Amino acid sequence: MSLSNFWNTGSALNSSNNSNNLYGLFCDNAAIKNGSYKRLLRSYYGSPVKTSGSSASGKSDRSETVLDKLLREKKYPSVSEKTKEVNAKLTKGLNSLGSSVGKLQNESTFEDTENGTSAKDKVVSAVKDFVTSYNDVVTASKSSSMTSKTAYVANMMTATSKHENQLKEIGISLNRDGTLQLDQNKLKAADISKVKDLFSADNAQSYGSVIASRIRFAGTSSTGSVSGTTTDTDSKKDTGTSASALKADGEALASSELFAKIKDKDGEETFDVAKILSTAKSFVSNYNKMFDAAESSSNSGVVANLSYIREKTADSEDSLAKFGISVDKKGRLTLNEDTFKKADMAEVQKFFKNYGSYVASNASRVNDYMTTNANAANGYNARAGYNLPHTSDYTTSI
Question: What is the pTM for the complete model shown?
Fold first, then answer.
């Protein structure tokens, strides 16, 4: 039997038998762990290549295999001068964008000054700076290798898209390439109170607050820590614990078991309001704890899922209010127990079947990113090793 026929026969057998495939995976894993896979690669890529190296004389060369070279390049990736330039532009652009958003969140920008500069002129100038800086950031991010920053730029662009109609009202339109275009005449004719509301620092859901938070997280990623990691172990633990607890509460409120009817003292079937209220109180408490612990995270996965939860809550604010759950300007929840007790539990069940499961799903991801996938947002970790989720045996052995 020829080698090719033998290979094809083996492949056919494996493809028809899932247990064989699984066995093969275990064999591969064993080969990686015991080093035979590495030896196999070395034998295949065994031809030496010359690389300049330093010696006592400073002139000697050393030989390395192709595999050595590939592994070295993977651990110490080279970045072209052009990419370095783009990365620098992105960092500079984020700093400028942060300053422009800061001006639009400053009360004094919306007030006339004693030297005769009107609030309108100051607002127009600040918005122009914002649009220019925003476009610089979007353009640079498309060619940047700094995934720890570009992830947040992508999130900013999503927020911009969601606020497109509000931006149009003040003369800012969204181009197909993600950049912004300013109509100064429309801006000058607009009510500056709309600009103030759009960028409000007091409202955690405002466009300006969302953009400011993404800039802050992107900036944190460049201070020496790797995106997706945290140096505060206690904070990481607190986030994971509260997110995990919120997941459980959300799933409970979305389940039919919690709303199973019981018989009261008169023998009538009714909801166990005390039990439902207790779960709702726990839900609100863990919701707030998770945001308190996780909002300062530089992990793009955490940030994204917190954003999804916050947006879902904002969209559901009217429904939550009917059950005595209010949302403050920082996005935290407060439960009025008396109002909750008086609510129609059938309506509560119907609402939390969707909202509770949605929050639980995203809280689960927050917990996952803060624990098992902490490094997934960035390719290279602090030790110059490449992050491959769930394949640590491979990166350790090779």
Answer: 0.48
In the chain, which residues have pLDDT < 70? 1-80, 219-240, 298, 371-398
Kindly list the domain boundaries of the chain, sorted by start residue: 3-50+66-75, 81-220, 233-370
List of residues 6+ apart from 105 with CB closer than 8 A = 199, 200, 201, 208, 209, 212
Ramachandran angles phi, psi of 354, nearest 5°: -90, -55
Tens digit of each residue's pLDDT (9 = 90 or more) over 55-87: 444 444 455 566 666 665 555 555 667 878 888
Query: By CB neighbour count within 10 A (0-12 exposed, 13-18 middle, 19+ buried), where does 298 fall?
Result: buried
Give, as one character, the DSSP assignment of residue 297: -
DSSP string, 308-348: HHHHHHHHTHHHHHHTTEEE-TTS-EEE-HHHHHHS-HHHH
**Residue 46: per-residue pLDDT:** 53
Give residue 265's identity as a one-letter amino acid code. Answer: K
C-beta separation of 164 from 290 below 8 A: no
C-alpha to C-alpha distance for 276 and 285, rounded to whole angstroms: 14
CA distances from 319 to 227, 269, 336, 355 (A): 36, 26, 14, 10
- In tens, the pLDDT along 103-152 reads 999 999 998 887 778 999 999 999 999 999 999 999 988 888 777 788 88
Closest CA to 177 of 234, 138, 119: 138
